[in-house]
Amino acid sequence: MMVFKRILFRASLVMMAHASLTGMPTLAQSVDTSCSRVVMVGHPDYPPFSWAVGKRLIGVGPSLMEALAADAGVELELRYTESWPAALQMVMRGNADGIYGLYRNAERAQWLTFLVTPIADDEVAVIVPKGKAFPYKDRTSLIGKRGVTSNGESYEDSLDTFIATRLDLFRVSGQAAVLRALVDGKADYAIEPLATAMAEARALKVQDQIEVLSKNLLVTKMYIAFGRQSNCRDLADRFNRKLKTLVSNGTVKRMTVEANDLWDQRNELR
Question: Would you say residue 34 has pLDDT above 90?
Fold first, then answer.
């Protein structure tokens, strides 16, 4: 009997050694594929969809994430980051499970799993200082002029490539800084999501100092996505089913109206 036990013990050692060499899990290694708590990040400066008050995220995105997490029966943590690039990096590095309110492009699809259903369409506009509009036909009309947009913003592959290769465009930190650069004469135009630009303009009291040159530089979609290395990525199907319902029954539109009202109310108190 003792000889038999020694043989079993030696065999188990061999199996464990082989597993460690091949990267396979052993009895001493457990692979946690469960998700009872999901950590999501979003834009801290993207009203009315998502913005930060102190370190608390509010707006359409946070309200939507709360509804999706409650439906899936998981705890939700909305984690604050100081900037949009920081939010993207947090998911890329595996320090958060997912991110809400972003556009899809080929680079992001390499490390994110996107929900099938988009949250909403988002208009990307060309905005200019009041009284300084110039003839505009399409994106090529921007060539030769000085533009500004926000750090970390990516629109869609074709427009991103056009910006990088054809336009003289600089970036600043945050939506308010984009509008300030515009009204201070540092740029001829800004590329901005229209709803966000108008919300920020109201807060800065500069809505009478800017005008929209084009509302349809790009109409794209906002998504929710999970990091491919997250244990919570299997929630995507459950989240998607609930999101589809909330979009189709008008809940997301109602959330947007309420978030716009909340943004304006808060800024009237400044």
Answer: no
